[in-house]
TrEMBL record:
Chain ranges of the Integrase zinc-binding domain: 1-47
Superkingdom, natural source: Eukaryota
Pfam families noted in UniProt: Integrase_H2C2
Record protein name field: Integrase zinc-binding domain-containing protein
Signal peptide: none
Organism: Austropuccinia psidii MF-1
InterPro entries named in the record: Gypsy_RT_Integrase-like, Integrase_H2C2
Amino acid sequence: MHDSPLAGHPGQEKTLKLVKWDFHWSGMTHFIKDYVSSCQQCSRNKNIHHKKFGLLKPLPIPNGPWICLSMDFITQLPLSNSFDSILVIVERSSKIEVFLPTISSIT
């Protein structure tokens, strides 16, 4: 069912669902997952849907309060007192948060 021209080489979950309609045996799930993951045609033709992940590195520990800040914007909010965005500032060592109303044109 996985190799059928009509099936189009579906992934593990879809192949398992198709096989379960007509068959059942002990270890079927493990067998199908192994079979699909070893399919040469799939490994050559399937697109990778994401970029390779970068290496995660821990952030350095700040030496004191208000030395290292994280900032982000919350945008596309409905207007309130002529503001449509919020600037979020987080002090990394204490996790103190500051929310400042602003307008999206400063982003």
